[in-house]
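Q: Predict the bound structure with flavin mononucleotide.
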Amino acid sequence: MDTRLPRAWRLSERDYPENADSEEQLRFLVGYAILAPSPQNSQPWIFRLGDETIDIVPDPFRILEARDPAGRERAISCGSALFNLRLACRHFGRDASFRIHPPEADSEVLARFHREGPCDPAPERQIFEAILQRRSWRQPFAEKQVPTDLLATLEESARLEGARFTPVTSPSLQNALAGLVAEADWRLGSNEAVRRESAGWIRATDHAEDGVPGRAMGMSPVEAMLAPVTHRVFNYGDTRASRDRSLACTAPLVFALSTEGDEPEDWVACGQAAQRVLLGAVAQGLQGSFLNPPVQVPELRNRLKTLLDIEIWPQVLVRLGYPTGPARPTPRRPLTDVFHS
Ligand SMILES: Cc1cc2nc3c(=O)[nH]c(=O)nc-3n(C[C@H](O)[C@H](O)[C@H](O)COP(=O)(O)O)c2cc1C
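A: Predicted complex:
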């Protein structure tokens, strides 16, 4: 085990408590759920353990009011955490099911996960292992194309979870999308409330338990130390826009995931789809990162629809490619912090 990894990432399947009671086994599974991505690494989830069930509640104190007032991205993160739970559950030999807004639960429960009877874990072994390998890769990718046959697999992964995968297949469309990302960055950077909020989630080092370490965004140690102040005071939209434009233009693949509706159940579906797609890509040696600003600005979200030529709701925009080296994972809160009764 690599002791330089943040604690949450040092999970080993050998530690699965085979002979323990159901509650301890479910707790172990949640260790995989919290490795899901979340905006600003806000980890906006609460888990409530029941008898063979785990309720996922969006954490009311971990909403990004300025960027995500409806809690759409928060629900997407909970969806990705739910997907990890299902995958880990099957990996340890038990089937899993889930229900969105179960009628018998409190209204704040977004999804209820159920552990079911025995199943064969073999088919999903590779994507299960990818849970521990996935990172948000915000550097340029290697100059290597994404194999075209992988696109069909990713499309199917998204479909299985109820989302549509739209790859960008023409360079002119990719340039136009990169322009939209830059415009969204610029608009968000000009918004004082967004700046204040983002500044609050940047961390100078990896020692915090949430938030994004500056180094994960390509900052030097000094920039990372000053960022909580500089991001609040200065409009960083221009800098972010030119960086993201270039990352979007040069990515081997940019794709969107969209859903028929735009309600909490669609957001959870998108989160599950995003995680299935990302883990499928990671299992083949790729990494991805989100370029979500155009979805966060309502007017630009409509332009994104037009550009992608879709009638349904874009939920996430992602770039994908081969990383040029290893990346350190970002920290997570201790498990004890995410359980509430
Ligand atoms: C719905 C959603 C939107 C996100 N949007 C962005 C984004 O626009 N830009 C970005 O750099 N990262 C974005 N992220 C990635 C998070 O910052 C990242 O998941 C988090 O910092 C944890 O790091 P990890 O993915 O390496 O585990 C997003 C993640 C989610 C789930």
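A: The chain has a mean pLDDT of 95.
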